[in-house]
Recover the amino acids of this structure.
């Protein structure tokens, strides 16, 4: 039980690290069609905070949620969805960087 608890804690740390590491900068305003103004404004503020041009999205819900729900750009929705569901795994944009999957195989 202690080992399982330690693995669970490590996975949660990895999940948070992977969530915080992923970012997507958009410079083409047309890719944001369909998004509510509030989501576009948040992405603009996020980009400005990082001193980047355009709009910056991440895997925190206020950023990715509206994209998955409202974006007209299917490729954009797919990119964020894939990044979100593969966080801290052996697949996706940061494949294997934050995974403890090999450790879980013992259970």
């Amino acid at each position: 039980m202690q080992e399982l608890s330690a693995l669970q804690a490590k996975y949660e740390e990895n999940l948070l690290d992977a969530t915080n590491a992923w970012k997507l900068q958009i410079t083409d305003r047309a890719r944001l069609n369909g998004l509510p103004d509030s989501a576009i404004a948040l992405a603009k503020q996020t980009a400005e905070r990082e001193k980047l041009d355009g709009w910056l999205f991440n895997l925190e819900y206020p950023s990715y949620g509206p994209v998955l729900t409202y974006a007209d750009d299917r490729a954009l929705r797919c990119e964020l969805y894939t990044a979100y569901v593969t966080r801290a795994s052996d697949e996706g944009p940061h494949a294997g960087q934050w995974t403890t999957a090999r450790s879980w195989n013992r259970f």
In short: The chain has a mean pLDDT of 86. Residues 25 and 52 are 8 Å apart (CA to CA). The beta strands are 23-26, 55-58.
